[in-house]
Amino acid sequence: MKRLSTLSVVLLASCAATGDPDNIETKSGDYGYQAQYRDIEVSRADAGFLKSARLNSEICLPYRGGAYGTKVSGVANTLLGERLSRNDLVEVRIGNDEDLGGNYVVSRDGTLKIPYLPPIRAQGRSTADVERDLNTILVEKQLYDTAPLVSVRVMDVASALVGVSGAVFEPHQVELGGIAGDQRDVGRQEALGASTEARNLSAALRATGGVRPDADLSAVELRRNGRLYTLDLRGVFQGHNMVDVMLLTGDQVFVPSRQCFQDDLMRPSPVSPPGVTVFMSNLTQPATGNAISAIGRNVREMPYGTRYLQAILDLNCVGGARASSAHRSGLLLSRNPMTEVSVAIERDIEDMLRRADRDDYDPYILPGDAVACYDSTLTNVAEVARVLGVIGVGLLLNE
């Protein structure tokens, strides 16, 4: 029985608190990426009331694009409307000429190559621009005495390879629109005037995980053919139409950062993450497995703008018998997207539920975050007792 007594002491000692996570972001007294990361171990009188948004905004760099509504430099009509890109399929009609007319693909060098004619620049231009050039060339080459009726119409919009970097969650080169590579959409080819929203700037930002909360949407940069354009996308969060230009193969998009967390960007929009996937770990007790707690996948999907306490509720960590289930805690594992430093924040769930200022300590969930639940002290003691009973029986049977 001495061995059992010693084992009891060891296991009961394991019920003691293991201490708070060593969070690098808040260890120095600063609040890191979100002001909501601050330590909650303060009195109500010292906590203040709902000031996290102000604290976040105090360190923001000025908008590069200036005040909203001011003219942003570099925006030109060449960005507006539909533009041709490499691999687009177009139909060319020249009067009743069956030799020159036909279906053509915009070449890799961005030109339209029609037999007996010099290449016509098409990349980044409208069909009307190509029609004018084609008319001029036909007359200059004396193939026609007067300009014939010319029609250039898109039959199928190809995919576009675009590079996206800066303050987005997953910067990389993306393929937008089309089916895949050189494949064609036969249905669209049967109807002239094909178009697509899948090659828009907003689609590229969503394809790279969406803009981060520190993004400066006042001066999003678009580089095309050696020229820099600056676009103001703030209207998307203010109920106005954004400058959602059509992108072309070879475009480069860069989203600058304000070096601060902006609470007002944590909501769904055409440029925000389509949702948040969160890795989760449920309680040991009272649930005997994740399936019983309706956690049947590796990750859970949540709306963008979900907070820590909402995620904890979704994980079934809240509620139940107060005597045995109260004073659980939850651990948020995140990563500062600007510094790539991991963040570990533990919150006592009961403290969060009963604080009128809990929003100031209730972080937003970011894509790829993980949330884990820890059982109450009573549940831990009960689990230790159960293990003691199993081991004790085993020891007695061996004697």
Automatic annotation (TrEMBL):
It comes from the Bacteria. Pfam families: Poly_export. Residues 83-154 form the Polysaccharide export protein N-terminal domain. Residues 1-19 form the signal peptide. PROSITE patterns: PROKAR_LIPOPROTEIN. Keywords: Signal. This is Polysaccharide biosynthesis protein.
